[in-house]
Specification:
The protein has four helices and three strands, in the order E-H-H-E-E-H-H. The chain is α+β, with helices and mostly antiparallel strands. The longest helix has 31 residues.
């Protein structure tokens, strides 16, 4: 359980609060109007928190990558629709640059 203290009191007792966190292993929650504002935790606690966040992100990332791979692997080639080549033939045909761009 964390020790709660109003921000006005925390300002006056900052050095003591730091000692409680570092040497007493406490966690201090600074409040404003009774609502949590910030928390003071040891550097070791912060490192553990950041490491658990990294592990959670790493665990979630492969699942997202697998979903993308699964989605992409279901895409397949389909034959052109009837009449598509004649309708869009100019854009689809190869033009020889040495022949002035004339159609073949």
């Amino acid at each position: 359980m964390a020790y709660e203290i109003p921000v006005t009191q925390a300002r006056a007792e900052l050095a003591e609060l730091i000692n409680r966190v570092v040497y007493g292993g406490e966690r201090v929650v600074v409040t404003r109007h009774g609502k949590p504002l910030v928390a003071l935790v040891s550097a070791a606690d912060l490192e553990r928190l950041e490491e658990s966040e990294r592990l959670a992100e790493d665990a979630a990332q492969p699942a997202a990558e697998e979903q993308v791979i699964s989605t992409v692997s279901t895409v397949r080639s389909l034959p052109s629709a009837a009449g598509e080549r004649s309708r869009f033939g100019i854009a689809a045909e190869h033009r020889d640059p040495g022949r002035g761009g004339s159609r073949h």
